Amino acid sequence: MKSLRLKYKTDIGKDFTFSMNYADPTLAEEGGETRVQTAMDAILTQQPFSVTLASCYGAELIDRVVTEIII
Asked: Phi-psi category of 59—alpha, beta or left, where left has phi over 0 and alpha has psi -120 to 50?
């Protein structure tokens, strides 16, 4: 499963990050950064959280592999 972590600065200069599960793996390919930036800008415009987001400064596509151990 891949997750997308979006990184913002708040209006008081603190870091604010949040993650979304089931991210599209093609975000790591060419053109993916434009799609992520567009989404981050939309979130910045909407201000959907209880903090005021001032700017976006990064994103990470996280790939997590879980291997079950049968005991």
From this structure: beta
For residue 40, give Cα distances in angstroms to 26, 56, 70.
17, 7, 40
Strand partners, 66: none
Q: Collapse the DSSP code of 16 into the 3-class scheme (helix H, G, I; strand E, B; otherwise coil) and give the result.
A: strand
Q: 10 Å Cβ neighbour count for 14?
A: 10
Domain ranges of the chain: 2-63
Give me the chain's average pLDDT, please: 94
Contact 59, 4 (CB under 8 A): yes
pTM of the model: 0.84
Length of the chain: 71
